[in-house]
# Entry
Amino acid sequence: MKIAIMGKIHPDGLTIFEKNNIENFEIENFEEDSLIKNLSDVDGIVIRTANLTSKILSKCRKLKIVSRHGVGYDNVDSEYIFKNSIALAITGTSNAVSVAEHVMTMFLYLTKKIHLSNRLVKSGNFKNKSELPNFFELYKKKILILGFGRIGQELAKRCLGFDMEVYVYDPYVSEDVIKNKKCHPIKKKDGFELADYISIHLPLNDSTRNFINFDDFNLFKKNLILVNTARGGIVNENALLDALKNNIINSAGLDVFETEPPIKDHPLFKQENIILTPHNAALTLECRKRMSIESCMNVFNYLKNIKELNKKI
# Structure
């Protein structure tokens, strides 16, 4: 067996291959010609953020499984994968805690306006704290969680710990499941109108692209804090910029962008009422270890099962 690792991962995962004498190698050049050459005879691929197109995949004559080092797989041509009976795995249990904590960090930073207090002290104006704008508590505030998978549920637990009222929009999760988690199911429009906070945990697809657009910002409260750690494109960036510039909402936090990396002079960078991070909500050390191990275990277990099945046949 031969495994390609597309992008650097934590070495804890690689020990799975090494202990079982499975050949593996890291790929750093993600240009199409290089990938076609280096992936032609691999049995499995562990992939981070590089793209696997149908053209590249069609040249992988021995490929049996692609394992994502993460939960999304929009960088893999899934249509080709499924048509050609190639397995596709994700690290579904690894990143929920890290992302949920990242969201809470953004909520607290924006709610308490920490950056302004920090700037005040460092500029020698400690005594002028009365000049700072109002900041608030999370206590008893209403949060709308869009998408109630593992991350959404981990976030709900943390919000409940702050005595927040947690509302959930997810048409694919039963109301009983939501209520059993001490949350309230709600329709999209109703949630938009009552939320003090919104956190997005949806996949990016045709039905969720521009899920929050210009019209939706007219429904929001003026004090709304909006955080997106899911995928860029779910929130229309032009609509968000307009809302922030005109104080239609309070503030926002983004870990993801429509184009990554975003352009250097992106207009959102000039806004004081937004905090931005480089798509690293899941990249705590603990999570990187878990994702590395899980993504490699997915490949190892799948190929091992195929090998054992072939022996029986």
Notes: Residues 222 and 248 are 5 Å apart (CA to CA).
